[in-house]
Amino acid sequence: MISILRNIPRFVSTTRFKTTLWYVFVFTLLELLLGVGVYFYLYKNLNESLDGSLLKQANAIKTVVLQKHIDIESFTPDSLFTNEEDLMWDIIYDAVALNRRNTFIQISRSGKIIFKSASLFQNQLSLPSGMERKQLFDFRDSTLSKSLIRCAVANEKKYQVIAAFPKEHIIETLDSLKNLYLFLAPIFLLISIFGGAIISANALSRIDRIIKKTEEITAQNLDQRIQGEEYHDEYGRLVRTMNKMIQRIKLSVDYMNQFSLSAAHELKTPLTILRGELEVSLKSTKTPETYKEILESNYEETLRLIKIVDNLFFIAKVDHTKIQLIKSEINAKQFLNQILRNLKILGKEKNISLSLECDEGLEIIIDKETMQQVITNLVDNAIKYGDENQTVLLVCTKEVNRIHISITNKGEGIPPEELPNIFNRFYRVENSRNRKTGGIGLGLSVVKSIVEWHDGNITVHSIPNGETTFIVSLPT
Which of 30, 86, 150, 412 is the most buried (most CB within 10 A)? Predict the structure, then answer.
């Protein structure tokens, strides 16, 4: 019992309960509006029908009386009519028989009542003050009826015809309708509750299946997918959206796993070398030349670590959109020449020269610091993976509204099947996995990110054992 009470707030907050509640509310509201509408429609029609009947009856009696040219003042009893009332009844019988609703009928001539229907008994219909000129009105007379009496008046010359009927039958009809409605209301309420519960249960059962399947999906089985994409309703769209989200999560998890493995592997190598060389140097006394070699090796490994960390830091800033480009217009030839002068020393070991072809006066709008990183990275790769005794060629040209900067080298090239993936993070071509040239596969990813931040694009063309060209295209 206590557990049931504790679960009540949780159940009340569920979508199933709220859906049922809304269904009951809407159904009850429609029922109420329908009942009120029928009630007032029937009330209006019954009153209009009664008014039409009374007016028709009063006018019919008035017409008959006028057409007969009755002279009540000279009336004398005879064998047919013993009194004036018998005469009037014979005259208006047909008119009265037209509508039996007119319980009360009274005819006056020059203010004198000359006929009353038997239903009036000893009473008479007295018009309330101010009602002489109205055709229809209500009045109350407790001696005739407990309810209001609807009255129709027809005046012509000296005659006044009053046809009246108590509104009791209208009230009884409406009361019967109200009682029927009050009787059916609880039944409709129960139907709406059960109907709402069934509808919400059926509608949300697919949600329950989606929730159950989602709970089964963990980081270890992200290949699984939620069933139901084939439906074209809201649930189908939800399933498709969730499956796409799971796919993105899987890519992120794969990315993080790849990052962890690649970063750990690449960071471990220089750290292991540093540790080994430091241990060797501490075990015994070395000559100054030996210490110098150890320090130089440690310096190279430190630079390698710094480069790895810098690339990781840049990728993190790109992912969180924290890169702020400060663009300015600079001379392309001067910019590229300065980069090549700084990189010439890298090509000496393999006797690789750097050459630039660029039109004079060509201006480009770039963020100098990040674009320098792009060109440096591409030229460094061209030297690393290029054959000895060759030339790395930089060409800068303008075409329509684009600036093209190409870097070309000669070497083993990139296999065609590898080309679509070389800009992916942590991706490395197999022949690049060595300590001398290998990284963790972030260099080209960083390059692509920077170029795209400049609203540009980068492409690559490579011939195995031939030329490889990277082309950076930037807007002017």
Answer: 150
pLDDT at residue 434 in the model: 43
Residue 468: band (very low, low, confident or very high) from pLDDT cuts 50, 70, 90: very high
Q: Is 381 helix (H, G, I), strand (E, B) or coil?
A: helix
Q: How far apart are CA 374 and CA 444, in angstroms?
A: 9
pLDDT band (50, 70, 90) for residue 102: low
Spell out the residues 6+ positions from residue 315 whose beta carbon is closer than 8 angstroms to its own. 425, 442, 445, 446, 449
Cα separation of 43 and 267, whole Å?
90
> CA-CA distance, 413 to 390, in Å (whole number)?
14
The conformation of residue 149, written as its DSSP 8-state character, comes to E
**Phi, psi of 172, rounded to the nearest 5 degrees:** -65, -45
- The tokens for 340 are 């090549």
Question: 3-state class of 177 per DSSP?
Answer: helix
Please name which of 449, 407, 406 lies closest in space to residue 425, comparing C-alpha atoms.
Answer: 449
CA 315 → CA 13, 99, 302, 390, distances in Å? 43, 96, 20, 32
Task: Give the angle 201-205-206 at the CA atoms, nearest 5°.
Answer: 145
Of 70, 61, 56, the closest CA to residue 160 belongs to 61
- Give the per-residue pLDDT at 461: 93
- CA-based nearest residue to 172, from 163, 180, 184: 180
- Span 238-260, pLDDT tens digits: 889 989 998 888 887 887 777 77
| φ/ψ of residue 158, rounded to 5 | -90, -5
Which residue ranges form the domains of the chain, and what is each CATH number? 6-171 (no CATH), 243-316 (1.10.287.130), 326-475 (3.30.565.10)
For the chain, the distance separating the N- and C-terminal CA atoms, rounded to the nearest angstrom, is 75
Which strands, in side-by-side order, build the sheet including 104-109?
Answer: 112-116, 104-109, 159-166, 149-156, 136-139
Return the pLDDT at 379: 92
Beta strands 104-109 and 112-116, pairing class: antiparallel
Residues 6+ apart with CB under 8 A from 131: 137, 139, 151, 153
54/268 Cα distance (integer angstroms): 108
Which range among 123-132, 264-273, 405-414 shows the weakest confidence by mean pLDDT? 123-132
Which value, in Å, is the radius of gyration of the alpha carbons in the chain?
51
The owner of tokens 């006797």 is 351
Cα–Cα–Cα angle for 149, 153, 156, rounded to 5 degrees? 165
